[in-house]
C-alpha cells in the first residue's frame, strides 16, 4: 500500500461551533471556526463528515481567515466537479468546508466482483483527473469500501484492489503519485444498513477525499490564495 507523508500540516480547530452549519458555504464555515477555537481532532471531525474514521484521514481544520480562503477555493472546485461528474456521483464538503469528499458507487466504476475500471466509467474518471490536475495544490486520498456480503478477507482485498485501480487510472491521466494515497476498508466502515439491498448498494463505494496541501495552506495564511 502506498503511503505519502500528507497530513501532518493541519492546525487545531473547534468542532463544537459547527453544529447547525450545514447550510453555510465553505467560506463561511472556514471563517466560523477560528484558529484558536478548540482542540477537536480525529473522531470529532470525522463525525461531522458523516464517517468517524475519516477524521484520522483529514485531521483538524485550519480555521480563521485562512480557513475561509481554503473553503472558497474548495467551493469553486466542488462546483466544477458537479458539472463534470455523473449525476449519481456525490460531491460534498467536509472538514468544516476545507476539504471535499467525492463518492463513486462501485457499480459506476466496476463490474460485480471486479477491480478493473470499467470502460463506461473512464470518461468520468478522465474528467475527474483533469479537474485534479487543474487544482494541483491538493492531496488526494482514495478509499475503497464494500458491503458485508461474502468473506471479510475477500472484501478487504477487493476494496484495496478497487482503490488501487482508481489510483492507477488517475495516475495514467497525469495526476501525480506524490499527491495521492489509497487504501481499502472492506466491510468495516458502512454508511448504511447492510441488511437491505439499498443499504448494501450505498456501502459499495469508492470515496476520494481532496485536501489542501502545504502550499495552499501557506498561501491562505499569507492571504494570497486565489
Structural features, described:
With 226 residues, this protein is an alpha+beta fold. It has helices at residues 26-33, 43-49, 54-58, 64-84, 106-109, 119-134, 152-172, 197-203, 214-222; strands spanning 90-94, 99-105, 138-145, 180-184, 205-212. The protein has a domain at 75-221: 60s Ribosomal Protein L30, Chain: A (2-Layer Sandwich), CATH 3.30.1330.60. It has nine helices and five strands, in the order ααααββααβαβαβα. Strands 1-2-5-3-4 form a five-stranded mixed sheet. The longest helix is centred in the N-terminal third of the chain and has 21 residues, at 64-84. It starts with 25 loop residues before the first helix and ends with a helix.
Care to give the gist of this entry?
With 226 residues, the chain is α+β, with helices and mostly antiparallel strands. The protein has helices spanning 26-33, 43-49, 54-58, 64-84, 106-109, 119-134, 152-172, 197-203, 214-222; strands spanning 90-94, 99-105, 138-145, 180-184, 205-212. A 5-stranded mixed β-sheet has the order 1-2-5-3-4.
Summary keywords:
5 strands; 60s Ribosomal Protein L30, Chain: A; 226 residues; 9 helices; alpha+beta; five-stranded mixed beta sheet; single chain; 15% strand; disordered N terminus
CATH class of the domain at 75-221: Alpha Beta
Residue runs with pLDDT of under 50 for 5 or more positions:
1-23, 26-50
Q: Reading side by side through the largest sheet, how are the strands ordered?
A: 1-2-5-3-4
Q: Taking all residues together, what is the mean pLDDT? A: 81
The radius of gyration is 17 Å
Q: Could you say what the CATH architecture of the domain at 75-221 is?
A: 2-Layer Sandwich
* N- and C-termini, Cα separation: 34 Å
> What is the tally of beta strands?
5
| Percent of residues in helices | 40-55%
Say what the CATH topology of the domain at 75-221 is.
60s Ribosomal Protein L30, Chain: A
The percentage of residues in β strands lies in 5-15%
Amino acid at each position: 500500500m502506498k503511503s505519502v507523508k500528507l497530513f501532518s500540516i493541519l492546525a487545531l480547530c473547534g468542532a463544537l461551533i459547527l453544529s447547525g452549519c450545514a447550510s453555510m458555504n465553505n467560506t463561511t464555515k472556514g471563517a466560523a471556526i477560528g484558529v484558536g477555537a478548540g482542540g477537536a481532532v480525529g473522531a470529532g471531525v470525522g463525525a461531522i463528515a458523516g464517517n468517524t474514521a475519516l477524521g484520522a484521514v483529514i485531521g483538524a481544520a485550519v480555521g480563521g481567515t485562512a480557513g475561509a480562503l481554503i473553503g472558497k477555493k474548495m467551493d469553486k472546485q466542488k462546483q466544477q466537479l458537479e458539472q463534470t461528474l455523473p449525476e449519481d456521483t456525490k460531491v460534498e464538503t467536509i472538514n468544516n468546508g476545507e476539504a471535499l469528499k467525492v463518492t463513486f458507487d462501485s457499480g459506476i466504476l466496476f463490474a460485480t466482483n471486479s477491480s478493473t475500471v470499467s470502460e463506461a466509467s473512464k470518461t468520468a474518471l478522465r474528467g475527474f483527473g483533469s479537474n485534479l490536475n487543474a487544482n494541483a495544490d491538493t492531496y488526494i486520498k482514495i478509499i475503497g469500501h464494500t458491503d458485508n456480503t461474502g468473506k471479510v478477507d475477500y472484501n478487504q482485498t477487493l476494496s484495496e484492489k478497487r482503490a488501487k485501480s482508481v489510483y492507477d487510472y488517475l495516475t495514467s491521466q497525469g495526476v501525480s503519485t506524490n499527491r495521492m494515497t489509497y487504501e481499502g476498508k472492506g466491510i468495516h466502515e458502512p454508511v448504511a444498513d447492510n441488511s437491505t439491498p439499498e443499504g448494501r448498494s450505498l456501502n459499495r463505494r469508492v470515496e476520494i477525499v481532496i485536501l489542501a496541501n502545504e502550499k495552499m495552506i501557506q498561501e491562505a495564511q499569507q492571504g494570497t490564495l486565489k
